[in-house]
């Protein structure tokens, strides 16, 4: 092996002063480093960021990852670690996880999220369990959880929501607060009887004075 006096030749089987390593020792990876207009070979135990180790019978090499925003990869088309700010998902890197997947922040990975069904129709407008007697109420709609998330740490989206609504009937049958019609009729009858009794009493008094 011709290492030469230059430290860049460490791990080389053959090395030149101008181009660095030309061949590497067994198990080391040949990496062609570029600095401006210059390039030279190095022999490394592991490939740098953005490259992966490709083993061949002739010589192991560091090959560039072809995946956008990838920091390290297993192969040319499968990323194992994304750059800062990107989530790893099925060998690719994303700013945000695809639909149906949730972000696992501690690992910066996309995992299967919580799947929910379609929203139901809005329910009846009500307030205090009444559908009348008020001007405004609330109506609610819901949806079901179709598939629970793979990890308990991933929350499901809301499955119920309410909104303000205007009631179709401001006044309840029988009164504003929904009192039975019978109660109102009884009061009306009682009032009529009192008025009739007072009228008859007045007639009796007038007749009595005339007879005297």
TrEMBL record:
For this UniProt record, give its keywords in alphabetical order, as a comma-separated list: Developmental protein, Disulfide bond, Glycoprotein, Heparin-binding, Secreted, Sensory transduction, Signal, Wnt signaling pathway
Give the start-end ranges of region Disordered: 176-212
| Limits of the R-spondin Fu-CRD domain | 9-110
Give a yes or no for keyword Secreted in this entry. Answer: yes
What GO molecular-function term can you cite, just one?
heparin binding
| Cell compartments where the protein resides | Secreted
Check the record and name the InterPro entries matching this protein.
Furin_repeat, Growth_fac_rcpt_cys_sf, R-spondin, Rspo_Fu-CRD_dom, TSP1_rpt, TSP1_rpt_sf
* Listed Basic residues bias regions: 179-191
Write one Pfam family the protein is assigned to: Furin-like_2
What is any one of the record's Gene Ontology cellular component terms? Answer: extracellular region
GO process annotations (BP): Wnt signaling pathway
Q: What is its main location?
A: secreted
Keyword hit for Zinc? no
Indicate the family of this protein. Answer: Belongs to the R-spondin family.
Which named protein is this? R-spondin-2
Q: Which gene encodes it?
A: Rspo2
């Amino acid at each position: 092996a011709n290492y030469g006096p230059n430290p860049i030749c460490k791990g080389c089987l053959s090395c030149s002063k101008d181009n660095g390593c030309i061949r590497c020792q067994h198990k080391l990876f040949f990496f062609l480093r570029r600095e401006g207009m210059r390039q030279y070979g190095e022999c490394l135990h592991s490939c740098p960021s953005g490259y992966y180790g490709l083993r061949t019978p002739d010589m192991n090499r560091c090959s560039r990852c072809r995946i956008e925003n990838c920091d390290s990869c297993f192969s040319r088309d499968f990323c194992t670690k994304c750059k800062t700010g990107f989530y790893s998902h099925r060998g690719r890197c994303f700013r945000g996880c695809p639909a149906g997947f949730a972000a696992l922040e501690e690992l910066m990975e996309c995992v299967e999220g919580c799947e929910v069904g379609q929203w139901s129709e809005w329910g009846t407008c009500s307030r205090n369990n009444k559908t009348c007697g008020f001007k405004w109420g609330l109506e609610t709609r819901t949806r079901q959880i179709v598939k629970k998330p793979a990890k308990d740490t991933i929350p499901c989206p809301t499955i119920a929501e309410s909104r303000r609504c205007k009631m179709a009937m401001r006044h309840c049958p029988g009164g504003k607060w929904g009192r039975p019609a019978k109660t109102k009729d009884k009061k009306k009858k009682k009032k009529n009887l009192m008025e009739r009794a007072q009228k008859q009493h007045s007639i009796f008094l007038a007749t009595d004075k005339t007879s005297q």
